[in-house]
Amino acid sequence: MSRPAHQRPAYHKINKDLFVLTYGALVAQLCKDYEKDEDVNQYLDKMGYGIGTRLVEDFLARSCVGRCHSYSEITDIIAQVAFKMYLGITPSVTCNNSSRNEFSLILDKNPLVEFVEELPAGRSSLCYCNLLCGIIRGALEMVHLAADVTFLQDRLKGDSVTEIGITFLKKREEKKYRRKK
Amino acid sequence: MADEALFLLLHNEMVSGVYKSAEQGEVENGRCITKLENMGFRVGQGLIERINTVLLLVNLFRFTKDTARFKDELDIMKFICKDFWTTVFKKQIDNLRTNHQGIYVLQDNKFRLLTQMSAGKQYLEHASKYLAFTCGLIRGGLSNLGIKSIVTAEVSSMPACKFQVMIQKL
């Protein structure tokens, strides 16, 4: 079957759908397996964590980012480099407190929900994209940063935007850098 | 976009997640394979819908009297081996064989979901877990193209594997 060259780029678009469709099938299966929304949310977060711990290696290899010196720099890189690389979107970043360890990523476009019109009936507290929170948390932990990552707002739940909150927790003590006297 | 890495990682987490929450035993293994296969089925159907939508938009100006895209079953299998496989795994199926009586064997010598796992016989007993989703993917794709089938996979030496498609005559 010969086909004109301009049809080939069309297939690239569909390749992106593979991840989105697979994620949708996964959430649907989890909704069948678990009755409570919190269980599904937790499972997605754990799964995301596993993915994040490995994804960060792929990210660092591809992006060659330098060393970061502040939480806000890290959050900017997550939003402008990592999200762009893997999901093709650039969320905007806001800082939520004066001690500069709480940030928000505001997603006005979310490719994960491209084929989702609304949450299934009886699933009103399902955090459909909770995988993303786990991924960010797992990735940060691999670079020795502890953080709490949750959804603060979700368009699927009726909010006006989708907002992911990242709270950087106190750094763990680096025991190996302590000098023995 | 580097989302192949994302899909690979998601797929692997799905496989280990399904098996973690199951117990040991033949029956449980079968259930896990079925779960993964069913998820693949849904995704395969969705992908064909997307391909149809995208091609429809691209082809609007090219419609002729005969708008059927595929002449016959073999044409559909060739589509799966070339376009569908390239869309999902960025390469074509390396070898397609058929007995012209409804059985097709698709051979991929460097199957993307296995290349990171091993090169040879190591972990062979786990390979089937990582093929279940793709079997469902093929079955789902064919289903939306009007073909009912049973798809199984076998691996003798990673990362090469064979998918066997048995067309079910209705």
Automatic annotation (TrEMBL), chain A:
Main location: endoplasmic reticulum
Origin superkingdom: Eukaryota
Biological process according to GO: Golgi vesicle transport
UniProt name for this protein: Trafficking protein particle complex subunit
Keyword Endoplasmic reticulum: yes
Function: May play a role in vesicular transport from endoplasmic reticulum to Golgi.
Subunit-structure text: Homodimer. Component of the multisubunit TRAPP (transport protein particle) complex, which includes at least TRAPPC2, TRAPPC2L, TRAPPC3, TRAPPC3L, TRAPPC4, TRAPPC5, TRAPPC8, TRAPPC9, TRAPPC10, TRAPPC11 and TRAPPC12.
Keywords: Endoplasmic reticulum, ER-Golgi transport, Golgi apparatus, Lipoprotein, Palmitate, Transport
Protein's cellular compartments: Endoplasmic reticulum; Golgi apparatus, cis-Golgi network
Cross-referenced InterPro entries: Bet3 (IPR016721), NO_sig/Golgi_transp_ligand-bd (IPR024096), TRAPP_component (IPR007194)
Organism: Aotus nancymaae (Ma's night monkey)
UniProt similarity note: Belongs to the TRAPP small subunits family. BET3 subfamily.
Transport in keyword set: yes
Gene name linked to the record: TRAPPC3L
SUPFAM superfamilies membership: Ligand-binding domain in the NO signalling and Golgi transport
GO cellular component term, pick one: endoplasmic reticulum
Pfam families per the UniProt record, alphabetical: TRAPP
